[in-house]
Amino acid sequence: MVRGRQAQRRKQRKENIVRAMLLSPSLLIIGGFLIGPLCIVLVYSFLTPGTFGGVIWEATFDAYIQFLFERDFVDESLVFSTAYLEIYGRSFLQAIVATVACFIIGFPTAYFIATRPEHQKNMWVLLVTVPYWVNLLIRTISMLFLIRNEGPLNYGLQAIGLIDTPIQIAYTNVGVGIGLVYSYLPFMVLPLYATIERFDFRLVEVAYDLYADRWTVLFKVIMPICLPGIIAGSLLVFIPSLGAFIAPDLLGGGKNLMIGNLIALQFQGSRNWPFGSAAAMIVMSVVLVALIVYTRQQTRSRIQVY
Amino acid sequence: MTWACMVFLYGPIIIVAIYSFNEIRSITVWGGFSFAWYVKALNNDLIQRATFNSLIIAVGASTIATSFATLAALAMRGRAFRGREGAFGVISLPLIVPEIVSAVASLIFFVLIGIPLGLGSILLAHTVFCIPFAYLPISARLDGIEGYYEEAARDLYADGRQAFFHVTLPMLLPGIMAGFMLAFIISLDDFIITNFVAGPGSTTLPLAIYGLVRTGLTPEINAISTMLLLVSIFFVTMSFIIGRRNVGKNR
């Protein structure tokens, strides 16, 4: 059937209208209940805290200033305080350590799965993924159950005589770190597996032919090519770890606060909504920066391929 | 290293499951296999109410989310159109934003607008983040359906609507079901966002469990954890299996 140019454009436009209508419920609800609220959080971070929570509509930078300075009671001057910086520092450190740990555990695992025979691969992927779908709260509770002083791990170690008194792992930074790795390990394994699977292993053979040893092959051949997967996996672990709440809350025992706990505190006990909003905004900015870096790296690597 | 990884991933939950059957409340002594803790957990009033709330919210949120996601997936298929990447960005936004940030944003928004914090607010918040989870399996399924099925239908004089309802939709159904089950379990499992937007008196299962943990670990918690664990694994495995059923099998 021959269609005129105009008729084709009309059809195109009608199609676009239909697409817009189909998309609208989803976009509206996410736009209205997530994007809108996020903007409100941004606004709130510049307001003054109300006495019992909530906000007073007076603009101020107080919330952001509070991160670095404390107001001296006597003369209202600002004193540099590291209290909140510590929390941010700890969160960053925990997130980085968790990412590295996940990589050390995840890379060999992904490599292993990628080198299985074809029909086994999906089974292994499923095996790695299934624990993730168990409720994060339950999984963290299980980890707490395991590593606490009266728990099976300490009991087992004592029973075989390795230690005399229980090692304090729960309610420490290490415990939180373990919890974070436990929460997000599959997020590292899966992208790594995806890239390693696509890796052309003949390159390894070529490298061996050129007298490279195993470590050279690993660091100079496999890893650079799998870099996109490494970055994706790292981001997928780093970002949630930074804003994590459950792991530091249950495994940190109220002392090893991370950003997630700090934010939650502002809306529950401390009732300082602008401060909580400001903290949330800072986390969002870090996430956005990470995402921008990631997308730029993706486009750059795509260009390199050509 | 892979075995270590597996042990690490499955170890804690298996151990919890084992201890949930221990008759007596001890780590060191095995008192005998027993369902006592399960019975106690199931008879707990708070747990019963919380489970009921969780189920209602999960069904509601996943139904709405799956419907919206299906429409969206249908809109997004085919050749690229202007704004498609932006639309995909919006749809996947709930996955990117850290949960604590979403939770805070939702709370502030509800309070500002004057929506009372209760089951309704939880339902709304859950629907938002269930959409991307429902969307992904549906979109994947849709991508796998070849265009020639619809063309064949049209060749047989079916019009657009008939082609859709009698050919595409039935083939899409496994994807829709997979999306629904995924959204369901995500809603059931959610803690952080629910913690923020729940009002007094509207507890969900994860919130109740959290409260119990706060007062100390008991074997009942082990029992509840194991039950929830099995439900989650069941749902996700089913979602996976259903979603992967061969497209060509359906005629």
Account of the 3D structure:
- The complex is a heterodimer of chains A (306) and B (251).
- Chain A contains 13 helices and four strands.
- With 306 residues, chain A is mostly helical.
- Chain A has two domains: 1-44, no CATH class; 83-305, MetI-like (MetI-like fold, Orthogonal Bundle).
- In chain A, the strands form two sheets. A two-stranded antiparallel ribbon of chain A has the order 1-2. Chain A has a two-stranded antiparallel ribbon with strand order 3-4.
- In chain A, a hairpin with a 6-residue loop joins strand 3 (69-71) and strand 4 (78-80).
- The radius of gyration of chain A is 25 Å and the shape is globular.
- The model of chain A has no long low-confidence stretch (mean pLDDT 78).
- Chain B is mainly alpha-helical.
- Chain B has a single domain, classed as MetI-like fold, CATH 1.10.3720.10.
- Helix content of chain B is 76%, strand content 0%.
- In chain B, helix 1 crosses helix 11 (219-243), helix 3 crosses helix 6 and helix 3 (45-76) packs across helix 10 (205-214).
- The model of chain B is unreliable at 247-251 (pLDDT under 50).
- The interface between A and B is large, with 76 and 74 residues.
Query: Oligomeric state of the chains?
Result: heterodimer
Question: How many helical elements of chain A?
Answer: 13
On the 0 to 100 scale, the average pLDDT of chain A is 78
Q: Averaged pLDDT of chain B, please? A: 79
CATH architecture of the largest domain in chain A: Orthogonal Bundle
- What's the β-strand tally of chain B? 0
Question: Any low-confidence stretches of chain B, pLDDT <50, length ≥5?
Answer: 247-251
Rg over C-alpha atoms of chain A, rounded to the nearest angstrom: 25 Å
CATH topology of the largest domain in chain A: MetI-like fold
Strand order within the widest beta sheet of chain A = 1-2
How many domains of chain B? 1
